Amino acid sequence: MKRIALGVVGMVFMAAPMMGHAQKIVVNKDNRTIAVTVTDKATEQADVATVHIGFRAYGPDSDSAYAAGSKISNAVIDALKKAGVEDKAIQSEAQSVQQNYQFDEKESELERAQKRYVLTQSWTVKTAAADAAKALHIAVEAGANSSGQIDWDVKDHAALQAEAAAKALQHAKAIAAQMAKGLGSQLGPLLYASNTAPETPVAPMPMFRVQAGMAVEAVKPLALSPQVIEENATVYAVFAIE
């Protein structure tokens, strides 16, 4: 939805420069102008993805938890590399070994004793949007039992933002032309324009966990659809009127 703020100056008038704009437009009887502020957007389906993968490994002591985690850690990375994921596409996020204080209420004392320590590790995997489900599936099958968040994005943000700005300027001109017509005048040339791009947060896909020992053989990758990425631009444009 477009946000439109209109300002008409000219015909008589006193100067009222808009705060935050770098250039001051002088308005008087010899310089009649119309100022318009329009926000518009451009959208494009994501073509890149950052997949967050990780796991939890337990043990009765820190050494055991570390040993179990080491096996899973190397299995996950080996599986990704065998699938063709490049080293530079994989980045470590966090890793730690610590005493575990989170237990299921239904777990017996014996079961809790085997989970007194926990090793956690996580990575991000950058991939094409079309390959996000495959990367997640490979990691989960290899033991990444705490995975699932995906950040969707586009490669060329500048082009998408430029498209949004162009749309906003086009609409600003159309609005200014209607205003000029209502004043019995014609729209003149563009005197000044500025553009700001509001930050648009991307909602990530929630993490999910696979219970230890849960069978994942013969399971197909999740059905994922890349998000539509939106860029907004606000254009402040000042036109002369003739």
Describe the structure.
It is a single chain. The strands form three sheets. The chain has a four-stranded antiparallel sheet. Strands 4-5-3-7 form a four-stranded antiparallel sheet. A two-stranded antiparallel ribbon has the order 6-9. The protein is 26% helix and 36% strand. The radius of gyration is 28 Å and the shape is elongated. The protein folds into two domains: 3-44 and 156-200 and 232-241, no CATH class; 48-153, 2-Layer Sandwich (Alpha-Beta Plaits). The longest helix is centred in the C-terminal third of the chain and has 26 residues, at 157-182. The chain is built from four helices and ten strands. With 242 residues, it is of the alpha+beta class. The model is unreliable at 1-22 and 211-217 (pLDDT under 50).
Topology:
Blueprint: E1 3-9, E2 33-45, E3 48-59, H1 62-82, E4 90-99, H2 109-113, E5 117-128, H3 132-141, E6 146-147, E7 150-153, H4 157-182, E8 187-196, E9 208-209, E10 228-241
Antiparallel strand pairs: 1-2, 2-10, 3-5, 3-7, 4-5, 6-9, 8-10
Helix pairs in contact: 1-3
Q: What is the CATH top level name of the largest domain?
A: Alpha Beta
Q: Tell me the series of helices and strands, N- to C-terminal.
A: EEEHEHEHEEHEEE
Shape: elongated
Structural class call reads alpha+beta
| Main sheet record | 4 strands, antiparallel
